[in-house]
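# step 3/5: fold
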Amino acid sequence: MQVSVEYPAPCTAVVNIELDEAQVARAIDGAYREFGKVVNVPGFRPGKAPRNLVQRYADRNRVMQNAMQRMVNDTLIKALEEQDITPFGGRSPELTPVGDLVEGSTFTYQAKVSLNPEVTLGAYTGLTVKRPIKAVKEEDIDKVIQDIQTKNAKVQRVTDRGIVENDVVIAELKKSIEGEPEDDQPARRQLVYLGENPPGFDEAIMGMENGEERSFQITVPEDYQDAEIAGKTVNYHLKVTSISGKALPELNDEFAKEHFDAPNMDEARTKIRQVMEENANRNSIQYAEQALIAQIIKNSTINFPEVLVIEEMRDEFRQLSQKLKENNLEYGTFLNVNGITQEQHQQMVAQRCSIRVTAMLALREMSLQEGLQPSEEDIDNEFTNLMNQGVLTEEMVEEFSQDDRRRMMLGNSLIESRLHNFLFANNTIEDEIVTEDVDPDEIEEELLASLTENENTDEVVEENSEESADESSNNDSIEETTQE
């Protein structure tokens, strides 16, 4: 056996293992002996037929696969030990034969091995980031109240005016898409909710009165959620048969009690402000933390095997697939609504997952260097704290504290908390007043734009595009996933 090693990418080794003719012959002969025990050769009991007859009745491809597996079982571990190569996390190497297996010749196969990540942290203390603070304005509170008021409006039929915003209309509606066969079915009576139609539709019917008919045409944007008409020109004919307006509930003490658990609207506004300020502060803190992590990543050198990105991608596509299933929608619809191709989606997911893996490795190394890993005693104490706070019962603590998975989850939670406290205690956080809502996800987008793209990203996408598509192709979910 001859062994050589190549390192085509960071944290990846390709081990070339060449077996001589004698090893190949032994493996093939052993495979035929094994098949001879189960192959029915006329005139012979199982395992007693000579090899030349077994060869006539055995499936050669299966025999050769068996022989290859025998050689791998006999040589792979030895080859890795000889080269002092340990697969990362006990993951199995990816095996690839080089050429066909032919008796009387040598045989070579390759083992692609994922190696441990390599993390060299740069500066992670003494950094300065902004924490955006959005002041809650009176109009922000007004908007919350108006939204709840609108959602609780009662629908009442009107006869003394035409259609206005937020009306609910019963209409006989017929549509045809340009370039497609016209539907010869009569117009169908249906509910039309103003504010929930393609752009341009509401404007076209505004002011129409009961019994009035109107024909109009609109061109639907490419990113519209209804894939049937997205990006197309649609002709409509509509006849109004009923108009109903929304009667808003009065903003009084009863409204405040029912919707805000407050004695009056002044107290309701106070509670709304408090909740909005808490949410804004939470987002601001998360934004600053993500900004610190982004700087740490930029300051550091972090290499890892592509298998980590692949595994993260599989998790994300499994989650997407579940959401698609729940919403009864197709993967193609998801792509259409987002205005992207499958290849572009694969690329976006690979980049996101690469950033997440990078951040995870950086934080893990930081927690090790700073001694932030919790001890078993720390985890036991945290279970007790959760019981004292009323989060867990005594029976739950007794059960959970013996569960390795729950102990690991609680340990990870402690690490996250300690890392957060460490980062904010050892770096400068400058408050900055802003007028728009802050989104911590913007930091990930900035990282995607500024960091050098992982050189293996395209390869990762290509290798996993088919599997990832299969995960999502039968189901789809637009809600939530479109913003990821």
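# step 4/5: annotate
The domain at 2-116 is CATH 3.30.70.1050 (Alpha-Beta Plaits).
# step 5/5: archive (pending)
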